[in-house]
Amino acid sequence: xxxxxxxAVAIFSSVVAxxxxxxxxxxxxxYVRFPxxxxxxxxxxxxxxxxxxxxxxxxxxxxxxxxxxxxxxxxFDIAFIGAPFDTGTSYRPGARxxxxxxxxxxxxxxxYGGYNVPLQVNPFNSGLRVVDCGDIPVxxxxxxxxxxxxxxxxxxxxxxxxxxxxxxxSLTGEKLVPISLDGGHHPRIITxxxxxxxxxxxxxxxxxxxxxxxxxxxxxxxxxxKPSIFGGAPSAQAAINHGTYFYWASQEGLIKNGxxxxxxxxxxxxxxxDYVNDDASGFQRIExxxxxxxxxxxxxxxxxxxxxxxxxxxSIDIDSIDxxxxxxxxxxxxxxxxxxxxxxxxxxxxxxxxxxxxxVEVAPxxxxxxxxxxxxxxxxxxxxxxxxxxxxxxxxxxx
Length: 399
Description:
Elements: H1 2-18, E1 78-83, H2 98-105, E2 130-135, H3 143-158, E3 176-178, E4 188-193, H4 199-210, E5 214-218, H5 245-251, E6 260-265, H6 273-280, E7 283-287, H7 291-307, E8 312-317, H8 339-347, E9 354-360, H9 372-390, E10 394-396
Parallel strand pairs: 1-2, 1-4, 4-9, 5-6, 5-8, 6-7, 8-9
Antiparallel strand pairs: 3-10
Helix pairs in contact: 2-9, 3-4, 4-5, 7-8, 8-9
């Protein structure tokens, strides 16, 4: 069984290395591979609802590109990619089905065209090439190898050049230059988890392009616990899980210390020493209950004051939302934010340079028949995508 898996990996690597094949030249003459918005209209130009139930289920009916195999040569600006991994959980597993569930919850996002009224943008028709790359192949049998697969899969997408040029700053008109360490203009990746362990390999990938990164983390839990406290660390691999990945990311120098922040925190602690360790890991905190005193505007201000104008990685655990609104998650905690409050806060990040993002811990098996959690996750990512579409990932040339 193991040998068959290794053969499959070798074939996968070979296909990536050799690029496209002759099949890519077989498309009809008038075939449009990347429409700027998905096709949901009849021949008369009318919007048709039936199209959202047709074909394979990609995020928001975006074009599907086999980014990691036969279409690895195809450029894009923003890509959705799944990381179906959940063997780093401490309570309820099931997030390996999160990518499929989130895609199902996103079916109707573009039914009416996809215009985001509060942010005044249609991210699906903004001139950017936005695609769904499917899922990274992830083994459920070996956590160490799975984490390596996620890092390599994410890095294979992140280190490409984008489809669209940076252009000029929308406010000043000045020419923009890339903010990456290598001077390249790289695409943005939105990862569909998966449990939160996936963020460690993703941050390793991010570091390869941007160096230490500021992190905005929405979660009911700190996720900076020392392995000796969270899980007991009976082995080196068991020490890496969905409650310790930020501890390891800090130890590896992946996080820009002092400019990162948690939001929606409301977990119990082993002791107040957990906060001391969280401080040492480079994070500031916003407790979920603070929304009652400072409101969404105050929370947005705290976040923006903390990260400043640094490049940012955004990580969203669905359990930042109260289980009344999003019950399908691995470690639910009552007393969280509503879906409306989280979406409002995300819109308040407009203008920040979010280099990539994720949403994690969606476990559809625990959802209601109304698909509350998967729909909430998809709508949250709609706000993230809209913010990305409005803000070019570059900085203005001074002088």
